[in-house]
Amino acid sequence: MELGTYDKPLVEVRDSLDLANKEQRIEELERKMEEPNFWDNPEEAQEQMKQLSSMKEDRDTYQKLVSAKEDMETLIEMGQEEDDDSVVPEIAEMMEEFKASFDAIRIKTLLSGEFDKDNAIIKLNAGAGGTEACDWCGMLYRMYTRWAERKGFTIEELDFLDGDEAGVKSVTFQVNGENAYGYLKSEKGVHRLVRISPFNAAGKRQTSFVSCDVMPDIDKEIDVEVRDEDIRIDTYRSSGAGGQHINKTSSAIRITHMPTGIVVTCQNERSQFQNKDKAMQMLKAKLYMLKLQEQADKLSDIRGEVTEIGWGNQIRSYVMQPYTMVKDHRTNAETGNVDAVMDGGIDLFINAYLKWIALGTGAKEEE
């Protein structure tokens, strides 16, 4: 895109972000914050502060884009009037920054789903591939952790099970940050690794699989009935990486919802009560999402546990030998820089997925 072609897209972004109404809402909340009883309900006040911060960020980001465009136009005009080519490198650098900022805010306009703004809960399960699959599970856990760090998000580990020899059999963790679910819903599915396994003495190329289930951390107030007779609650001893705060007593909780077969676990809170509370929250969120998907006749998509972790179900392939390539099979987005992807550089795939969903196409990510 040349600079002049951004006029219409900028207007579309402004309208998609609903900045006129947000500006009005910002003024209302700022007046409300000055009221003496604003902090009488701390939970509500915190939520309103969060809303205010988010709306201000959208407004300020858009205003910076408009200002940057105007600055470049002025610089171009001055260079043309004075026949000065020395401004070209500066304009090129400004243009690259402008494009990156515009793409980021344009992607944000695609996050309009009911739960897109929520935190995300991810569960990784090692599938076919034995020890190699467990190692692959640990690699994906690190990839998502690095991605979250880049975004300024935080990771809260909820459940962890070591592999028998190496890596991770399964891990459940929460990614806390604005639009975390909106971004990470793109990762739901089976991830396939092809490489020469360090665990294979013959040095043969091996294929392994890990399933990734993603759901929003829906507020506790969602209207979902969970009957006592429909669930089985088991306690067990916490184990695995878990960190310094993990409780080694039998405080870990596993809840099985017998009508659906959904199983949720939590072991990393400080007490059995807290683990049970978090696990029940996760179960309600899963049941709520299941209900929504049933209405849309997409039950198989939300019940990740019943998806076979193997051939034919992968959403993305990561090939490390004999060549390097990461390719998303839904959008056709791809890159040869596997190391960058494994270090958290997955925005290419997230952005391509969001555009693919919005446009209903499998076109490649725009260059």
From TrEMBL:
Its main location: cytoplasm. The modification N5-methylglutamine is found at Q244. Methylated by PrmC. Methylation increases the termination efficiency of RF2. The keyword Cytoplasm applies. It holds the Pfam family RF-1. Residues 237-253 form the Prokaryotic-type class I peptide chain release factors domain. GO terms for cellular component: cytoplasm. It comes from the Bacteria. The keyword Repeat does not apply. InterPro entries: PCRF (IPR005139), Pep_chain_release_fac_I (IPR000352), Pep_chain_release_fac_I_sf (IPR045853), PrfB (IPR004374). One of its GO terms (molecular function) is translation release factor activity, codon specific. Belongs to the prokaryotic/mitochondrial release factor family. HAMAP family: Rel_fac_2 (MF_00094). Peptide chain release factor 2 directs the termination of translation in response to the peptide chain termination codons UGA and UAA. This is Peptide chain release factor 2.
